[in-house]
Amino acid sequence: MHKRLSRYSLLAFAAGALLGPGAAQAATKDVYAGTPPKGLLKGVPEFAVDNSFYPKRIAVRAGDKVSFKIVGFHNVLFAPKGTTPPALFVPDPGTPVAGAKDAAGADFWFNGQPSLAPNPQVLGPTGGKSIDGSKVVGSGLAVAGPPKPFVVKFPKKGSYKILCSIHPGMSATVTVKGRNADVPSKKQIAKRVKAQKKAAAKLAKKLVAGDGVPSGNVVIAGNDSKGIATLAFFPGTKTVKTGESVEFRLSKKTTEIHNVAFAPEDYAKQLAQTFLGPTGLDPVTAYPSQPFGTPLVADGVVHGNGYVNTGVLDVESASPQADKSTVTFSKAGTYAYYCIVHGAEMKGTITVTD
């Protein structure tokens, strides 16, 4: 038996040598959207998340497949070079906002403005299961249960940038080489993933500790860097004097969107439940509480319950939303504020003294 196995092994080796590497069957490599295996970093609070692909760069041979395993609230999307990737939500002038009222029963200013509707090109699978650079290809978003792996073939040599529509700036690069080229093995890829996770956890610990947070009357919505997003305000509490202003801004290269809304807790939680629905974004959260260009002033009574909202903030240059907003405090008191986008669980407090 031993001799027979040895002969078979020799025959297999000889056949492989004669046929060459080009005769090898197409391989499938794994890429994770979110930290593997479960999407969370170890050793840091759960509010620190890693909006990254693992690995961020991978090389495959032409004809190989990549299985994108989604382990968080992500999608997978490719857009051809020179084109603008489809946005998750798009203005819909044909369905203007209507009937939006504040706690005092008065109409909000954004009635009549375009609603922000979900983009079918992002929500549903699009473009098939092959990426060759010619068209948009996307996984869509899972609506029930954990998402299945999105397996796509790369038949053509080139460099392909893979995006997550939900987290701007979250990307991976798939380099497709010739059919006979040397590419990293699964073991080598696993080693890279392990090193990437270790570096991400180290960075997350620094960001959670407030590393790099500016001083003065500034609050950062998420102390973020290199894909690490901290779903918290830094600092979480601040004291200012009556008449002073606080600038709320995003980290320069955050992968998240936020808003800052001053409101009673029950009202904030109510808005969190309706922020994202089948018809799109709730305009009461998406739009600022005052018209664009109008100062935001917190006094505890505006709009019937003290509601002051920056609207959604992001750092995308092509987006109409700003990346920062300023709120002035005209009356002494304690003002709680929330990020409705993240379920009103992300919150802070401003104390205003005379």
Describe this structure in words.
Helices cover 17% and strands 31% of the residues. The chain has helices spanning 2-19, 120-123, 186-208, 265-274, 283-286, and strands spanning 28-33, 48-50, 53-54, 57-61, 65-70, 77-78, 89-96, 114-118, 137-138, 150-153, 158-163, 171-177, 218-221, 228-230, 233-234, 237-241, 245-250, 261-262, 276-277, 280-281, 296-298, 308-309, 324-329, 333-339, 346-353. 37% of the residues are buried. The chain folds into two domains: 19-87 and 115-205, Immunoglobulin-like, CATH 2.60.40.420; 210-353, Cupredoxins -  blue copper proteins (Immunoglobulin-like), CATH 2.60.40. It starts with a helix and ends with a strand. It is α+β, with helices and mostly antiparallel strands. Strand 11 (158-163) and strand 12 (171-177) form a beta hairpin. The strands form seven sheets. Strands 4-12-11-6-9 form a five-stranded mixed sheet, with no helix packed on it. Strands 15-13-17-23-21 form a five-stranded mixed sheet, with no helix packed on it. The protein has a five-stranded mixed sheet with strand order 16-25-24-18-22, with no helix packed on it.
